[in-house]
């Protein structure tokens, strides 16, 4: 799915937990997430902290969209 | 009588008879003898081999901790001093296929013994590991178990005995290894023969299939995020409560487009997941954990992004064929282009 969106000319960031799959599929901008059943959350945290975590991950995705890349890049930080 | 070939079998929590998605977080464990589909393998392997142990690991645990999980599984396998390791088959289960491939590749490398797994051609584990291990091509679902087991067992025995194998005859996916042999006819004669068949619209088999690369170059970065319209798309199956479009929990036949007008956050009352390939408890409790609408609204209000596109798109990426996923995404992308969306965040589970 990421590839088709990229092919249409829109920059896309893939937020997912199993990064090797994303790399195999061919996503260019990748942000690793928390866990398969809750990529953008962590039920072990208090709601406010959980939202903070989600915010940091989404902000990282926005940074990825604002970063020029050649080929695949995993945005770890 | 010669010693029986010692086999260890790798299974996920489901085929290992531990439980469904609620047990997918389990760490690796081992059991003596065969478990679940191991029984069919035991009978297909016959007198020449014995399944001495089975190692079971949860798919989610494996997917989230690939390196540690691989090492833990290999440690459990080593205990049984195997001559051969069989994993799966994983059919079209992505996490399971990735796990089977990673376990086999690690065993082949560390123990230098033959390994065999089975997967559907589109399983992401295929492209990740086909060059390093033998992957028997299976059907897309466990309904193909009966046909997969004898093929895998036969190939496994051949490899264990050091007999020559052939991808077409033994039903495994080509590994990209070229073998030299003496052909009856010289190259030019074979080429002409092939061309004549092709022109006659008859079937012909190439001797050198071209590798298929399907890579898309990254688009330029977004210059001014504070003015950009950003859309959310997910393969994690987040849909309005009640799943109005009846998107299937696996092998989705469609995608949905849903309005976010006036929606500040997703809640257990407003949205849910339709995805059947992961434990839905956390996503149902708080769908923002998969589709971060709450945070996107905050960032929109604060001016970090220009605007969150009014609609989001969702499908279920669970056993969904690559052809369908491509088709849905192409249709979604077309609409996003028309709506002048400048960037997409795609979340996957």
Quick gist of this model?
By secondary structure, chain A is α/β, with parallel strands linked by helices.
Architecture of the largest domain in chain B in CATH? Answer: 3-Layer(aba) Sandwich
**pLDDT averaged residue by residue of chain B:** 94
* Biggest beta sheet summary of chain B: 6 strands, mixed
Q: Which percent band covers the strand fraction of chain A?
A: 5-15%
Beta content of chain B comes to 15-25%
**Shape label of chain A:** globular
Please report the distance between the alpha carbons of the first and last residues of chain A: 24 Å
Q: Unreliable stretches of chain A, pLDDT < 50, 5 or more residues?
A: none
- Total individual domains of chain B: 2
Question: What's the helix-strand series of chain A?
Answer: HEHEHE
Largest interface: A-B, 51 and 69 residues
Mean pLDDT of chain A: 95
Going by CATH, what is the homologous superfamily of the largest domain in chain B?
Response regulator
The count of strands of chain B amounts to: 13
What's the arrangement of secondary structure elements?
The complex is a heterodimer of chains A (77) and B (349).
Chain A: H1 2-7, E1 12-16, H2 19-25, E2 29-32, H3 47-65, E3 73-74
Parallel strand pairs in A: 1-2, 2-3
Chain B: E1 5-12, E2 29-32, H1 38-45, E3 49-57, H2 59-64, H3 66-78, E4 84-87, H4 94-111, E5 115-119, H5 124-129, E6 134-137, H6 145-160, H7 167-170, H8 187-199, E7 229-234, E8 238-240, E9 256-259, E10 271-273, H9 281-285, H10 293-301, E11 307-308, E12 311-314, H11 322-338, E13 343-347
Parallel strand pairs in B: 1-3, 1-4, 4-5, 5-6, 7-11, 7-12, 7-13
Antiparallel strand pairs in B: 2-3, 8-10, 9-12
Helix pairs in contact in B: 1-6, 3-4
